[in-house]
Amino acid sequence: MKLSGCNFHGVIVIVFVMLSISSTSAMTNFNVLNFGANPIGRTDSTDSFLKAWNAACSTADSTFIYVPKGRYLVGSLAFKGQCKSPQIIIRIDGTIVAPSDYGVLRKWENWVSFERVSGVSIIGQGAFDAKGPSLWACKASSSNSCPLGTTTLRFTNSNNITINGLTSLNSQMFHIAINGCQNVQIQGVKIIAASDSPNTDGIHVQLSTNVEIFNSSIKTGDDCISIGPGTKNLWIEQVTCGPGHGISIGSLAKDLEEEGVQNVTVKKTIFSGTQNGLRIKSWARPSSGFVQGVRFIDSVMRNVQNPIVIDQNYCPHSENCPGQVSGIKIKDIRYENIRGTSSTPIAIKFDCSPKNPCTEISLRNVNLTYLDKDAQSFCCNVVGKVFDLVRPNSCL
């Protein structure tokens, strides 16, 4: 083990049950069509969806809300908790469509949101179509009149949540956000947005405990999965990413007082043409935050710009951070069985804080090449060990 300078050298088991309509006979059923929803998508169905939710929420029995095939035009949907029903299953077989004019949603942070709910499952083969391209075009024009956009689906301060089998298309901002939640299971989702779509993170997790993401495909213009402060016990497995920015812990150190990230496992992932593969990043400024107990296992890189990267000198546009160093403490990070190709010469980059060096970093069975040649590694302020075969030659 050593502290390097800046050098170059060449389980959690989950069972998801897809409930059919017939298997919910013991539950109280609510069909959005019975509340006036229009499946042709020509008239606004927002009130119909809210009425169906309120009916289910106020029922003492377990309840089932059904959205049949069709296209349903809705504005902002805010589903509030404190429900009498111990379990609410929402099966979506149709497509929920946002207004074509992105300005309609500009005063809302979220398009479809759940707050303080418990025992809610969203399942089915349906989709959310957020109509993001027109807003992306506005942002690309550098117009100051563009709104930030809305997150497609957000759960806040909620428990025992399941999301299974849905598709999220063209979100204005984040596709799925999990904030302040416990016991969340996400499986079999498809997330699709253009490679140049701004801030369209696939799944964002923060301030949440016991979150599991399995068997999903994420294609976006930003992070495939972004992991924010206060995330604890996160398991990610069998996820494919690309295009996009890869799986990122951070950005961290946005605030001086910030909760840490701990006990994260990322396993059996594939990255294709992404900007990054497995990334940890923090702003170069003081913070009480930390990252520890992270396991990156069995990842395949296909033409990835930065397959393995820790960046503690993140300072976009050189604003609010020049001359400072990151206070984030990063330790106990393991990379095992990582293989594939880098699209840049540096396949492994550990650019850590001079004040808080990265410690207990380990590499085992890593094989990354660049254009069928040996790649390079870069290390700055990092302590670690190498086990078995590691290519490129590690500078640890």
Describe the protein's architecture and organization.
5% of the residues lie in helices and 50% in strands. It has 2 domains: 27-207, Single-stranded right-handed beta-helix, Pectin lyase-like (Pectate Lyase C-like); 223-316 and 324-395, 3 Solenoid (Pectate Lyase C-like), CATH 2.160.20. The chain is mainly beta and 396 residues long. Residues 1-5 and 10-22 have low confidence and may be disordered. It is elongated, with a radius of gyration of 22 Å. It starts with a strand and ends in a 5-residue tail after the last strand. Helix 1 links the parallel strand 3 (28-31) and strand 4 (63-67). The strands form 2 sheets. The chain has a 20-stranded mixed beta sheet that branches. Strands 2-31-28-26-24-22-20-18-15-12-9-6 form a 12-stranded mixed beta sheet. Its main location: secreted. Residues 1-26 form the signal peptide. Pfam families: Glyco_hydro_28 (PF00295). It catalyses: (1,4-alpha-D-galacturonosyl)n+m + H2O = (1,4-alpha-D-galacturonosyl)n + (1,4-alpha-D-galacturonosyl)m.
